[in-house]
Amino acid sequence: MKALLVNPYIHDxxxxxxxxxxxxxxxIAKALRASGFDVKLLDLLDRNLPGNNAHDGAYGTxxxxxxxxxxxxxxxIPRYMKRYGAPLYIFDQINFDPDVILVTSxxxxxxxxxxxxxxxxxxxxxxxxxxGGNYATLLPxxxxxxxxxxxxxxxxxxxxxxxxxxxxxxxxxxxxxxDWFEKITPDYSLYExxxxxxxxxxxxxxxxxxxxxxxxKGFKSRSIDSVIEEIEALKKLGIKDLAFYDDxxxxxxxxxxxILKALPSDIRYHLPNGIHAMYVDEELASLMMKKNFKTxxxxxxxxxxxxxKKTGGKVTNVVxxxxxxILRSVGFTDKxxxxxxxxxxxxxxxxxxxxxxxxxxxxxxKPFLNEYTLIPGSVDWNAxxxxxxxxxxxxxxxxxxxxxxxxxxxxxGIKRIEEIKMKIQKFYQNx
Length: 431
Prior knowledge:
Distance between the termini: 58 Å
Largest sheet: 6 strands, parallel
Structural class: alpha/beta
Strand order of the largest sheet: 11-14-15-16-17-18
Mean pLDDT: 94
Low-confidence stretches: none
Helix content: 25-40%
CATH architecture of the largest domain: Alpha-Beta Horseshoe
CATH superfamily of the largest domain: tm_1862 like domain
Shape: globular
Number of helices: 15
CATH class of the largest domain: Alpha Beta
């Protein structure tokens, strides 16, 4: 059989390529090829596709091609909806006749891009479409409105085998089982050109932050050998930048140090997902400096002790300050190190958020604002639904951080958030 694997468009008010890759889809590709499938990848977010590179940023990041496709007047939000990804004519250039199409999904608020992509695929091909990924897992009932013939909720390649066997009407050879995460690696060879890649050394998260759902996957680690083998293979494919997208990469600190020691030194490395400050020590920081780490983000979220404890208790001000001081002591500056600050948390005041920003800058690193997003399935989401703050049938799109603060009573409001953004912007313009 022939399988077309598709990473869909993004529908959003803003989007940027911070080394985005459909890693789950690439794992599936490897498994299917091992089972005898002819596989082709259509990554609509690949900025190496014709017409999809609006602008190159630092270290392999950049802007996607985008087109305005509507406005948000019905929500009384003064923003434009855009489609991010390759121009539509890319569908006319697909030289492949699949027997089945597998579409992945990421953020729940990006579902519009999933819907449009499936519609375009259905118009081009008369074959079954299977939808999986984060959105399909967190909102399976909503995802069934997408037009897909099958929706797979949850992780695991065995579920995909089950659906494919239902489509084929016969058993198929299964190359991996429930331990697929350790047995195979993502198949990046499907890209014609590859500048950057994403690697996961762990899966899931042991922390239970109230605003997040990563912990619901459990937590497990890959072997050090399999991680290094994957990175060496990516180096042969010509990558210049590699982003570790683990949710909790430092939980087993000694293991990660062994990985660091074995890393090739001629690749630029990035930690964009927010490392845990409590695990940073001098040896770890020195190894990251030696191995050419160019992006390090620390999860700080808020300096308010009450909110720190309420949302999960994974960081304190003392622990955060110590981590920053250690990183700076080995030579990292605000060019490499930044802190994620969550803004718009329920109970957070404008004054306390501004104090957090100033505190981070005074420590000599850069603040990066994460506008609070209400993620379906999280503890915060369940509480908001139970308390009647958010209707059960709310459009997942307007739960995104850039939009929810226009209307959600639990937030400090979009005007205050924009004011803090402007203060940060003016500070760095004057530096």
